[in-house]
Write a structure and sequence with these properties.
Layout: H1 2-22, H2 26-46, H3 50-75, H4 83-104, H5 116-119, H6 121-132, H7 138-146, H8 148-170, H9 178-181, H10 193-215, H11 224-242, H12 244-250, H13 253-276, H14 291-327, H15 339-343
Helix pairs in contact: 1-2, 2-3, 3-11, 3-14, 7-8, 7-14, 8-13, 8-14, 10-11, 11-12, 11-14, 13-14
């Protein structure tokens, strides 16, 4: 039964990938990309990689298609026909695919007991994680404690990527972005009663679930990366349905920029606290009365930093795309009420 499920998922993944490459309707490709992410998450679930599946569902099937759709609002829905570029792209994909397939021949079989990871690091993590870290989710122990420096690098990469997107999309504008100093008209809001009611019903549970994922990562699948994306989805949904003016009143552009940096600062500060207490960088053992309690405090703090940075960067990217849409006339410019207008 498990083999049949794996074959079915792989067949659907392959069919979806071919359909994405074949279609010239970019909107359809964006929707298929979301389906591909959901199928990938299902496949990871069958492999027992629940945390990876959660991340793929939140990013690949959640916020990524939304950002792709915002991109399509700028560049159009139809793909231009360019056979030369298509042949070059197909050749590149075929070459990389062949290299990846060749690399799989040197990899150990999935779940093999003699795999290098199972003979070296895995026994340490599985056998001693509970005594040293004190949390049942070994994935969180590895990412947030044993390999906390790697995770800090990932957070910095996300922060840098957000700055890169802002530089690309807003590089030619005034230093005071239109997202900062303008508010859209009510025309940007959705007037569909069903959408507004459903959004009001869903946004609060989305935020509550994000908090659950944020602070339950020690005991089950989740953590700062997934929670940050879910938080961002809640804010973006609010902005799409009720207008950017409404979401700016909750989280303005300047505040979100600040929070993106604050999350990285929180993570780094926890590492510096370890140095101040005579331990290694990002060693949380001395942050509380006992080493295990210190691990709990440190992991909660750095996961909070991760969640803040991820959520802020996702929201910043949404704001940047919104500014571009307004600049290109896809969104209405804000109405400026003058003295003469009020007198009239």
């Amino acid at each position: 039964m498990e083999l049949l499920l794996d074959i079915s998922l792989l067949a659907m993944l392959l069919t979806t990938a071919v359909a994405i490459a074949w279609t010239r309707d970019l909107f359809a490709a964006a929707m298929l990309a979301g389906i591909y992410g959901l199928l990938s998450a299902s496949f990871f679930m069958t492999m027992g990689a629940v945390d990876v599946a959660f991340t793929e569902a939140a990013v690949g099937a959640g916020i990524a298609p939304l950002l792709i759709l915002l991109t399509l609002a700028l560049c159009g829905r139809r793909q231009r026909s360019d056979k030369t570029r298509a042949v070059l792209a197909l050749s590149l994909v075929a070459a990389v695919g062949a290299l990846l397939l060749a690399a799989t021949f040197d990899m150990p079989a999935f779940g093999a007991a003699d795999a290098p990871a199972h003979e070296h690091v895995a026994p340490r993590y599985i056998g001693e994680s509970m005594a040293e870290i004190g949390i049942p989710n070994i994935v969180t122990s590895v990412l947030a404690s044993y390999r906390a420096l790697d995770t800090l690098g990932e957070v910095v990469v996300i922060f840098t990527a957000g700055l890169g997107v802002l530089a690309l999309l807003l590089g030619g504008s005034d230093s005071r972005s239109p997202v900062q100093n303008s508010t859209p008209r009510a025309a940007e809001q959705s007037h569909d009663l069903v959408l507004r009611v459903v959004a009001k019903i869903l946004i609060a549970p989305i935020m509550l679930f994000a908090l659950y994922v944020q602070f339950h990562g020690e005991y089950g699948p989740g953590g700062g990366f997934q929670a940050g994306v879910i938080f961002a989805v809640g804010f973006i949904l609010y902005g799409l349905v009720f207008g950017l003016d409404a979401v700016h009143r909750v989280a303005g552009h300047g505040l979100v920029q600040l929070l993106a940096a604050v999350g990285v600062m929180i993570y780094g500060s926890v590492g510096l606290l370890g140095l101040a207490t005579g331990r290694n960088f990002l060693d949380y053992s001395a942050l509380a009365g006992t080493p295990v309690s210190g691990q709990h405090v440190g992991i909660i703090a750095i996961e909070l930093g991760v969640g803040i940075t991820v959520a802020a960067v996702m929201i910043l990217i949404f704001y940047a795309f919104s500014a571009q849409l307004r600049r290109h006339g896809r969104l209405p410019e804000p109405e400026v009420e003058t003295v003469e207008g009020r007198a009239g």
